[in-house]
Amino acid sequence: MIRVVIADDEAMIRSALAALLRLEDDIDVIGECADGVQAVALAEKLQPDVCLLDLEMPGLDGVQVAERLRRSVATRCVVVTRHARPGVLRRALASGVAGFLPKSRSADEVAEVIRRVAAGGRYVDPEIAADALSDQRSPLSDRELDVLRAGRRGETTGQIAKALSLAPGTVRNHVSAVLSKLHVATRQQAVLMAEEQGWI
Length: 200
What we know:
The chain is of the alpha/beta class. The protein folds into two domains: 2-134, Response regulator (Rossmann fold, 3-Layer(aba) Sandwich); 142-197, Winged helix-like DNA-binding domain superfamily/Winged helix DNA-binding domain (Arc Repressor Mutant, subunit A, Orthogonal Bundle), CATH 1.10.10. The chain has ten helices and six strands, in the order βαβαβαβαβαβααααα. It has helices spanning 11-22, 36-46, 62-72, 86-94, 107-118, 126-134, 142-150, 157-164, 168-182, 187-197; strands at 2-7, 27-33, 50-54, 76-81, 99-102, 123-124. α4 crosses α6 (126-134) and α8 (157-164) packs across α9 (168-182). The protein is elongated and about 55 Å long. The two termini are 35 Å apart. 38% of the residues are buried. The model has no long low-confidence stretch (mean pLDDT 90).
């Protein structure tokens, strides 16, 4: 049996998908939760074969959950999303996500992806992959993206510096470089642009 944990903050979608997957002879949904922090805790406790993660959840998004689990649990992660931005796909693959597909797929298709991933394979939705190949890459460095990510909810320069173990002056330099590269006036505008492009 393939043991699966599902994390999605939309209760109706989560419970419907869990019910449909439980109809499969070889899939056992052993846990469900509504946010990213719970997903990490549940996966560490239950050690499922596959975690099916919604991209957009409170606390931690699906990619951040996958990143954390890669360091602590031998669980393979599949991310599902309603808004499949190409930049997010690149971030997901860099974080070790084994499957990436839109929520528009049927439960049968999701089950097939779970089987493929559980067997050690990978799956990326072909349409998302094609979009990613033609999409504009981020002009920002990894560290600049880290600074935006750490400050996406309006954190102060000091809070960002502490979270990333950087000096406040270094954070200010990174923010200045970001504003210059993206041709925007504020850090909030930079965060919005980076989110829309799927860079963070």
